[in-house]
């Protein structure tokens, strides 16, 4: 009976450790998402400053804010997509490295532990989410610039 109780205690400890790990991964995802938006915001801001004269001339000949905003949004989405591709590559490399170490560990327990790469649907969600974050950073940056340039 005592052996069964110790096994249950071990399972509860493992579950608590896994919950902490899930929370750490969630926090890491949120921090990296904020970083992607911030990097895109700053990159688009620099691009706007580089093209400031072109934007002012476009406004003088009647260009609307959506017309001016559009190329920056496309660039932000592409930048976010590139970030998502880099993230997927990092995850794939981590899975390959960790699987070799897990093979040694699983041999000690007489079972098979193996990590798998994200599936096609998960990969598309990752890439779509990263593109959307890049778009968001670009939209925030261009909107801020255009609001500062509007006549009062």
Protein described:
The protein is mostly helical. The chain has one domain (2-149). The protein has 4 helices and no strands. Helix 1 runs antiparallel to helix 3. The longest helix has 49 residues, at 2-50. The termini are far apart. The mean pLDDT is 86.
Features:
single chain, 152 residues, mainly alpha, 0% strand
- In percent, how helical is the residue content? over 70%
Main sheet makeup: none
Q: How are helices and strands ordered from N to C?
A: HHHH
The averaged pLDDT comes out at 86
Strand percent estimate: under 5%
Number of domains: 1
Fold topology:
Blueprint (H helix, E strand, L loop, with lengths): L1 H49 L1 H9 L4 H45 L10 H30 L3
Helix pairs in contact: 1-3, 1-4, 3-4
Can you give me a brief rundown of this structure?
The protein is mainly alpha-helical and 152 residues long. It contains four helices and no strands. Helix 1 (2-50) crosses helix 4 (120-149) and helix 3 (65-109) runs antiparallel to helix 4 (120-149).
């Amino acid at each position: 009976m005592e052996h069964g109780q110790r096994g249950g205690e071990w399972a509860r400890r493992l579950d608590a450790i896994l919950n902490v790990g899930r929370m750490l991964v969630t926090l890491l995802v949120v921090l990296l998402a904020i970083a992607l938006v911030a990097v895109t915001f700053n990159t688009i801001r620099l691009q706007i400053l580089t093209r400031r004269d072109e934007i002012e001339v476009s406004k003088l000949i009647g260009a609307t804010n959506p017309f001016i905003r559009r190329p920056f949004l496309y660039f932000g989405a592409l930048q976010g997509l590139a970030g998502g591709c880099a993230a997927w590559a990092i995850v794939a490399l981590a899975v390959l490295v960790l699987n070799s170490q897990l093979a040694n560990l699983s041999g000690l327990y007489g079972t098979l532990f193996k990590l798998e790469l994200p599936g096609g649907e998960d990969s598309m969600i990752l890439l779509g989410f990263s593109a959307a974050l890049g778009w968001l950073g670009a939209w925030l940056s261009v909107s801020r610039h255009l609001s500062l340039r509007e006549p009062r």
